[in-house]
């Protein structure tokens, strides 16, 4: 999974799922607050899938 997809999944889980905002402006403000908070505490990504099959040079995808 792409790092960006993970970030959008977290945004959906914490901000959008089960929400009932009274307007688009309120929803936009909630998303902006989440992004500002996430950016404030952001750290570099360091934990890559070291043992993942896709990182091995002998890995060949099974495609038609």
From TrEMBL:
Originating organism: Amycolatopsis taiwanensis
Lineage: Bacteria, Bacillati, Actinomycetota, Actinomycetes, Pseudonocardiales
Protein name: Transposase
């Amino acid at each position: 999974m792409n790092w960006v997809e993970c970030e959008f999944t977290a945004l959906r889980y914490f901000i959008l799922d089960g929400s009932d905002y009274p307007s688009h402006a309120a929803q936009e403000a909630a998303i902006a607050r989440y992004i500002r908070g996430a950016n404030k505490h952001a750290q570099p990504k360091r934990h890559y899938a070291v043992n993942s099959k896709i990182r091995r040079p002998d890995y060949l995808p099974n495609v038609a």
